[in-house]
Design a protein that fits this description.
The protein has about 60 residues and is an alpha+beta fold. It is built from 2 helices and 3 strands, in the order βαββα.
Length: about 60
C-alpha cells in the first residue's frame, strides 16, 4: 500500500502503529494491518511503516 506524505493527512500515531490506520482509534486491541510505504521527499527514498487496525475495521475486512 502506498500513501501520501504524513503532512498530507496521515497522523504520526497511525503511521507508527499506535492508532487504527482507518479511523484513528487507539482503543485496544489493535491488529496488524500490513506495511504502508510512503515516498520520501528525496527521489528514490521510501519509508515503510507497520500499520494496525481496530477490531471494528478488522471485522469489516481490513487487516
Amino acid at each position: 500500500m502506498t500513501a501520501t506524505p504524513p503532512d498530507q493527512g496521515i497522523s504520526p500515531a497511525r503511521l507508527h502503529g499506535e492508532a487504527c490506520i482507518v479511523c484513528g482509534s487507539t482503543e485496544p486491541p489493535l491488529h496488524p494491518n500490513g506495511t504502508l510505504t510512503i515516498e520520501g521527499e528525496t527521489a528514490g527514498v521510501v519509508h515503510d511503516f507497520e500499520t494496525v487496525v481496530c477490531t471494528a475495521h478488522l471485522e469489516l475486512g481490513h487487516g
